[in-house]
Amino acid sequence: MKTQRLLIVLTAVNLGLLCYQLIQPRLAVASTVSSPGVLRGRSLEIVDEQGRIRASIAVLPEDPKVIWKGKPYPETTLLRLLSPDGRPNVKLGASRSGSALVIGGEADPTYIQVLAEGGESMLKLVNKDGERLIKPEK
Known about the structure:
The protein is of the alpha+beta class. Helices cover about 15% and strands about 45% of the residues. It has one helix spanning about 1-25; strands at about 45, 55-60, 65-70, 70-75, 75-80, 90-95, 100-105, 110-115, 120-125, 130-135. The strands form 2 sheets. The protein has an 8-stranded antiparallel sheet, with no helix packed on it. The model has no long low-confidence stretch (mean pLDDT about 85).
Protein backbone atom coordinates (compact mmCIF):
# COMPACT_ATOMS: atom_id res chain seq x y z
CA MET A 1 0.00 0.00 0.00
CA LYS A 2 2.84 2.41 0.87
CA THR A 3 4.60 1.58 -2.42
CA GLN A 4 1.47 2.37 -4.41
CA ARG A 5 1.12 5.80 -2.68
CA LEU A 6 4.80 6.53 -3.34
CA LEU A 7 4.36 5.74 -7.05
CA ILE A 8 1.29 7.97 -7.26
CA VAL A 9 3.16 10.85 -5.59
CA LEU A 10 6.20 10.41 -7.87
CA THR A 11 3.94 10.30 -10.94
CA ALA A 12 2.19 13.52 -9.82
CA VAL A 13 5.57 15.23 -9.23
CA ASN A 14 6.81 14.15 -12.67
CA LEU A 15 3.59 15.41 -14.28
CA GLY A 16 3.99 18.72 -12.48
CA LEU A 17 7.60 19.08 -13.65
CA LEU A 18 6.59 18.25 -17.23
CA CYS A 19 3.84 20.90 -17.19
CA TYR A 20 6.28 23.45 -15.76
CA GLN A 21 8.80 22.72 -18.54
CA LEU A 22 6.16 23.10 -21.22
CA ILE A 23 4.62 26.37 -20.04
CA GLN A 24 7.53 28.21 -18.43
CA PRO A 25 8.73 31.40 -20.15
CA ARG A 26 11.91 30.97 -22.17
CA LEU A 27 14.46 33.00 -20.21
CA ALA A 28 17.67 31.72 -21.81
CA VAL A 29 17.96 33.76 -25.00
CA ALA A 30 21.28 34.04 -26.87
CA SER A 31 20.49 37.40 -28.45
CA THR A 32 17.68 39.82 -29.15
CA VAL A 33 17.57 38.96 -32.85
CA SER A 34 14.02 38.16 -33.83
CA SER A 35 14.74 36.12 -36.96
CA PRO A 36 15.87 32.51 -36.59
CA GLY A 37 19.08 31.34 -38.20
CA VAL A 38 21.11 34.44 -37.33
CA LEU A 39 24.50 33.83 -35.78
CA ARG A 40 25.91 36.74 -33.80
CA GLY A 41 29.41 37.14 -32.49
CA ARG A 42 32.53 39.31 -32.43
CA SER A 43 34.51 37.10 -34.82
CA LEU A 44 34.30 33.83 -36.73
CA GLU A 45 37.05 31.38 -37.68
CA ILE A 46 36.74 28.42 -40.01
CA VAL A 47 39.37 25.71 -39.61
CA ASP A 48 40.39 22.73 -41.72
CA GLU A 49 40.71 19.13 -40.55
CA GLN A 50 44.18 19.83 -39.10
CA GLY A 51 42.86 22.75 -37.02
CA ARG A 52 44.52 25.46 -39.15
CA ILE A 53 42.53 28.66 -39.64
CA ARG A 54 41.44 28.86 -43.28
CA ALA A 55 38.97 31.76 -43.10
CA SER A 56 38.13 34.45 -40.58
CA ILE A 57 35.78 37.38 -40.19
CA ALA A 58 36.50 39.88 -37.44
CA VAL A 59 35.74 43.40 -36.36
CA LEU A 60 39.05 45.02 -35.42
CA PRO A 61 38.83 48.00 -33.06
CA GLU A 62 40.46 51.35 -33.79
CA ASP A 63 44.18 51.18 -32.95
CA PRO A 64 45.63 54.52 -31.81
CA LYS A 65 49.15 53.00 -31.75
CA VAL A 66 49.12 52.40 -35.50
CA ILE A 67 49.12 55.66 -37.47
CA TRP A 68 47.77 55.37 -41.00
CA LYS A 69 47.72 58.46 -43.22
CA GLY A 70 48.17 60.70 -40.19
CA LYS A 71 45.27 59.19 -38.19
CA PRO A 72 44.83 56.19 -35.88
CA TYR A 73 44.06 52.99 -37.79
CA PRO A 74 40.23 52.98 -38.02
CA GLU A 75 37.83 50.30 -36.80
CA THR A 76 37.73 47.73 -39.58
CA THR A 77 35.68 44.70 -40.55
CA LEU A 78 38.05 42.17 -42.12
CA LEU A 79 37.42 38.96 -44.07
CA ARG A 80 40.51 36.81 -44.65
CA LEU A 81 40.79 33.62 -46.71
CA LEU A 82 44.03 31.76 -46.03
CA SER A 83 45.98 29.16 -48.00
CA PRO A 84 46.89 25.81 -46.38
CA ASP A 85 50.27 27.25 -45.31
CA GLY A 86 48.60 30.20 -43.53
CA ARG A 87 49.15 32.88 -46.16
CA PRO A 88 46.23 35.32 -46.51
CA ASN A 89 45.39 35.01 -50.22
CA VAL A 90 42.22 37.12 -50.03
CA LYS A 91 41.57 40.08 -47.76
CA LEU A 92 38.45 42.19 -47.87
CA GLY A 93 38.21 45.09 -45.46
CA ALA A 94 35.74 47.85 -44.78
CA SER A 95 36.07 50.88 -42.52
CA ARG A 96 34.53 54.31 -42.13
CA SER A 97 36.99 55.78 -44.63
CA GLY A 98 36.51 53.17 -47.38
CA SER A 99 37.19 49.60 -48.39
CA ALA A 100 39.91 47.45 -49.94
CA LEU A 101 40.28 44.07 -51.61
CA VAL A 102 43.62 42.28 -51.91
CA ILE A 103 43.99 39.05 -53.89
CA GLY A 104 47.34 37.31 -53.55
CA GLY A 105 49.02 34.88 -55.90
CA GLU A 106 51.25 31.89 -55.25
CA ALA A 107 54.59 33.68 -55.64
CA ASP A 108 55.62 36.56 -53.41
CA PRO A 109 55.11 39.36 -54.39
CA THR A 110 52.13 38.68 -56.62
CA TYR A 111 48.89 40.44 -55.76
CA ILE A 112 46.11 42.72 -56.93
CA GLN A 113 44.85 45.52 -54.69
CA VAL A 114 41.62 47.41 -55.25
CA LEU A 115 41.16 50.42 -52.98
CA ALA A 116 38.29 52.88 -52.62
CA GLU A 117 38.92 55.46 -49.94
CA GLY A 118 37.31 58.81 -49.43
CA GLY A 119 36.77 60.20 -52.92
CA GLU A 120 39.60 58.25 -54.55
CA SER A 121 40.00 54.78 -56.03
CA MET A 122 42.89 52.81 -57.48
CA LEU A 123 43.95 49.42 -58.78
CA LYS A 124 47.46 48.16 -58.06
CA LEU A 125 48.97 45.15 -59.84
CA VAL A 126 52.21 43.68 -58.44
CA ASN A 127 54.33 40.71 -59.55
CA LYS A 128 58.01 39.74 -59.78
CA ASP A 129 58.49 41.97 -62.85
CA GLY A 130 57.28 45.15 -61.14
CA GLU A 131 54.10 46.96 -60.35
CA ARG A 132 51.48 49.05 -62.09
CA LEU A 133 49.19 51.58 -60.48
CA ILE A 134 45.95 52.44 -62.24
CA LYS A 135 43.94 55.50 -61.21
CA PRO A 136 41.02 57.25 -62.90
CA GLU A 137 42.03 60.05 -65.22
CA LYS A 138 41.03 63.62 -64.40
